[in-house]
Amino acid sequence: MYKRKGAGCALLLAVALGLSACGAPAAMPQASKDAAGSFTPATVTDTAQTVSAENDRLRVTLDKDTAVLTVTDKANGGRFESAVPASKLDREPNELWANAVRALVSLTCVDGSKKSNDTLTKNNVGEKAALSARPVDSGFEVTLDFSALQIQTTIRFLLKDDRLQVVIPDGGIKEAGKYQVVDVTLLPYLGHAQDTDDGYFLYPNGSGELFRFKDKSLRQNAVKEYTLPLYSPFALDMESRYALSEFDRDEMQIMLPAFGVKLGDNGFAAILEKGDADAAVQVTPGGVGVAVSRIAAVFTYRHQYQVEGAGLNISGGTSQFPLAQLYDKELIPGDRVLTYAFLSGPNADYSGMARAVRENLINRGALPAQRKDAAMPLSLELFMGVTREQLIFDEFIVTTDFSQAGDILRSLKERGVDNLFATLIGWQKDGYGSGCAQPAAGKLGGASGLEELADYCRESGVRLLADANLTDILKGSTAYSASADTAKDQNGFVYQDAAEEHLLFGPHAVWRRGGELFRYLKDRRLSGACFQDIGVFLYSDRSKGAVSDRRQTMAVWENLLAVSKEQLGTAAAEGGNAYVLRHADLVKNIRESSDSILFSDETVPFYQMVTHGSVLYTGEAVNLYYDETAQLLRLVEYGYTPRFELTYERAAELRDTAYNMLFSSRFSNWEERLAEIYGKLSRELDGLWNQPMTAHEAVGDSVFKTTYADGSAVYVNYGAAAFESGGVRVEPQAYIVVKGDAG
Q: Quick check: pTM over 0.70?
């Protein structure tokens, strides 16, 4: 059995009409193709030596001879250069690195005429690419002609207020020979730093991670480069995806398409506005090649895949072996847009970076401005049923039926829990793991029992959501067409694990099944769906007649949430990748830690600072905490919506089933404690949970302060001694809220 992962308007109207008419969308949504954006005018100057753009805040200059880009922040005279001066290097580099550190752009290419492709890393300096520049509205356009490669690249540098937007337009990569572009790194050394510089890199790995500049000897000998793909790895590893142990899975995840640099009193936040479905953040400490650290965005234009052969092994079975390493034939279309928001003075820290990213997402409509709910929310997951496999007849295990779920919700309402999001897990005919297109399980009360529960929830203001897994196929439990429904790789092979038990629906099939689900839930009068997986990972499907690249899959995931919200009223997702934030009311299982790249220094709540007040997010269920005191403090510090996952019966009933991760979930055992925790948090954090976070900082040893838009501050003390400063006293292992301007 599979393992659960912890995890516009015109288009929306068309989707909604398609569902009303026939219960399924008429066509799968497509990725957006809108323009890069419009800009207020800036002064543009073009001379024989330079081309530049300037406004009240920034000046951006490109030297045509050296191809060096310089950004000057007029707020305090801070400068960022795309090239590393020789004075910043501890020794003279070889020719390869001497060219690399002065590059405006770096390309990874392959020889498309060969069957097995070895990549080549090239840059405009090493290839002596001819540069031409011309003024355009609000900036200038640069064309780089890599004549030896027969590749031409066009890049626009556009200025608006405190932001520099770097754009490779759709069609901006032209190939006329055998060499093909795999990926492009823009401004690979902008924001470079020496070990002695005061500052850090920020990358949203997990909740967020800082790498502070420091001597090489203090980096745990981790002198290596990390490439962190956005949203999920490009190569789909089915073995890791269904690993029995969480420790066997690669959990590294970048949920927000952004990164940041702080250098003294200056810094920037870089946001990948377009092309993010096929992009990564590359982080390299000083000592890899040259003695400067660097961070950059890498945009992928072709994905790699492997052609494999099969043969007999010595034990008489079959084994697979690689025949060739290939890349996609066609370039992934679309604009690539990277926006740098420059920061200075007290704004040049990770809090300022979070504010800049939040503002960018809100301005682009990718994040709601602010929630308006009156009461603090509670996320309650009720586990209903699961089938236990047995030798002859399988047994359906009921842990919470629909009537019992109603009793639980009534009890919580009576105890003052006024803003409930209740998600039903394992509500379908065969329970958890059986897909979501089936009717409600008869042993739980059937359709009539589900409707009665939904009617109570609507009358009492509880949002009742159905847990839905639209992506996974479990052989023997899920109805599907092997030829028409399954997702396939570039070789035409179905994605599956080694045991050939787990497969994936293609995005076209997911979209169709979503229509069936919405119709069923609407007829049952539920408030919405909570989608597993779509906020956690992307994948492409190369099935003939149903091709979907990662951009198109992202559009499907986003529109599933849009339709749930439009048709049913509420949308939720497991995982919080940026593309779900536009329409999700609630995102679940958002990590409270980073993934600890070996040279990193500390975890910060960057993701939480960007999203708080706009989207509700939950972490680990409180009833599954291993250290309730410390984890409740983290919930307060990071602004989580409290979450519980409960059952009416004992969790022991789930032994030997596909859902055996609950160990303390019986409602009668948690009823008093849940009401106590919720009551305390809702009183003490009243008015804060739906506000934007404006700052986060360490103010003492194991003491942190989170500041909100109205000036209120929350101090959290994880230490063993009381903390006192500026009239604020926080007892050990406790928190205090200072309201208004007094914070």
A: yes
